[in-house]
Amino acid sequence: MESKIPVNNPMPFPRRERILISVNEAAQMLNLSKSYIYRETRNRTIPHVRIGSRILFRVTDLNAWIEQQNQPALQEQDCA
């Protein structure tokens, strides 16, 4: 008699947005070069996290950093 073992389909983990992204992904997200990203991390002008030798970025920190870079447009003065 052959015993059949039921095959369990593993339940997939719920898809979550990633918390940390790499230098390559940050460069793509910001539409900037990797060398610019590395320079800004070296100058500590862009928020980043170091884990061992890896440089990573929190997506939320990058979004906040983008907002801080916003330069408001100059309003035209009335020419009355």
Structure write-up:
The protein is α+β, with helices and mostly antiparallel strands. It has a domain at 20-64. The chain is 34% helix and 12% strand. It has three helices and three strands, in the order βααββα. It has helices spanning 23-30, 34-42, 59-68, and strands at 20-21, 49-51, 54-58. The chain has a three-stranded antiparallel sheet. A hairpin with a 2-residue loop joins β2 and β3. α1 crosses α2. The longest helix is centred in the last third of the chain and has 10 residues, at 59-68. Residues 21-69 form the Helix-turn-helix domain. This is Helix-turn-helix domain-containing protein.
Order of helices and strands: EHHEEH
Mind summarizing the main beta sheet?
3 strands, antiparallel
**Number of helical stretches of at least 4 residues:** 3
| Chain-averaged pLDDT | 86
Helix content: 25-40%
Write a compact overview of the structure shown.
Residues 21-69 form the Helix-turn-helix domain. Helix content is 34%, strand content 12%.
Please outline the helices and strands.
Layout: E1 20-21, H1 23-30, H2 34-42, E2 49-51, E3 54-58, H3 59-68
Helix pairs in contact: 1-2
Domain Helix-turn-helix: 21-69
Pfam family, one: HTH_17
InterPro entries: DNA-bd_dom_put_sf, HTH_17, SinI_DNA-bd
Essential attributes:
80 residues; alpha+beta; 3-stranded antiparallel β-sheet; 3 helices; 12% strand; elongated; Helix-turn-helix domain-containing protein; DNA-bd_dom_put_sf; HTH_17
